[in-house]
Write a structure and sequence with these properties.
Strand 7 and strand 8 form a beta hairpin. This protein is elongated. The protein has a nine-stranded antiparallel sheet. A six-stranded mixed sheet has the order 11-10-12-13-14-15. By secondary structure, it is of the alpha+beta class. The longest helix is centred in the C-terminal third of the chain and has 28 residues.
Length: 275
């Protein structure tokens, strides 16, 4: 039998993550966490800067049947009948380590069981989506009826053009990137640039409710700053698309609609009577 999973109160009273957990793998992995188990949603975790305390204030001792590591995931099985299986996912996003604690049930809830349509965007026969050359791990739009090309964009990550005219642009954000760019002030400058485009939007690969589960920053601050940004730049909506798959689909539909609207405007202008 492996050592138990230990959960204790965080000895740092100023931390927004009130618990620490010791994963009995190798010499032991110590994380700060908001919850004692991922019961309703993924739990954000962070590396604990200090070692496991000599005299921890133990909240819960979870005996384990098994623990194993598969790539970025650490799977644990508790020695109990309910809430037995969970998983720590240690990965990286935009150069930062990201750690989440989840169960199969909450992971499935984060992936809505929907079948995306295959119809063309805006009824267009063909849609070419331009991907900014600085965009890492870019969306491929393989499910959608679109092709992609790369070129440097003045702002944003994805765009649609008619001839050489930019008609719409989308800035893509993960939840963590959104929170960081809001609190650092970078998003304000980016929204000002996006507002100068014919049509623009920011799409977030997560739910709005996930803001209030952030552990490394005060959720109310992020929510307030998000509201302020929408008031200052109402022409640039910030859309929460629930996950990466739906964010990609929304971007495809938005860019297709922008191209169709532009072409309809050109056609209407052509049919106007001359003075």
């Amino acid at each position: 039998m492996p050592e138990p999973l230990l959960i204790a109160r965080n000895p740092d009273p100023d931390s927004s993550l009130p618990f620490i957990v010791r994963i009995p793998l190798g010499a032991g992995i110590v994380l700060r966490t908001r919850e004692t188990w991922p019961r309703t949603a993924k739990v954000y975790c962070h590396r604990h800067d200090a070692a496991w305390p000599d005299d921890p204030d133990i909240v819960e001792t979870i005996e384990l049947r098994s623990i194993s590591r598969r790539g970025p995931a650490i799977d644990i099985e508790a020695d109990r009948t309910r809430e037995a299986r969970s998983q720590f996912v240690l990965t990286r996003a935009r150069g930062r380590e990201m750690i989440f604690w989840q169960t199969a049930r909450v992971a499935k809830a984060a992936r809505p069981n929907v079948d995306l349509p295959t119809a063309r965007a805006g009824g267009l026969e063909h849609l070419e989506i331009v991907v900014d050359t600085r965009e890492r791990y870019a969306w491929k739009f393989t499910h959608q009826q679109a092709t992609t090309t790369k070129r440097a964009l003045p702002v944003g990550d994805y765009a649609s053009f008619v001839d050489d005219m930019l008609v719409a642009v989308v800035e893509r954000k993960s939840l963590e990137d959104l929170a960081n760019s809001l609190t650092s002030g970078r998003l304000a400058y980016r929204l000002a640039d996006l507002a100068g485009m014919p049509r623009a939007s920011v799409v977030v690969e997560d739910r709005y409710s996930s803001i209030f589960k952030l552990g490394h920053v005060r959720p109310a601050l992020v929510a307030d700053m998000l509201g302020e940004c929408q008031v200052r730049w109402p022409s640039v909506p910030i859309v929460f698309a629930e996950n990466r798959k739906l964010a990609q689909e929304w971007t495809f539909r938005f860019l297709g609609a922008a191209v169709r609207e532009h072409l309809m405007g050109e056609e209407a202008h052509r049919l106007l009577p001359e003075d």
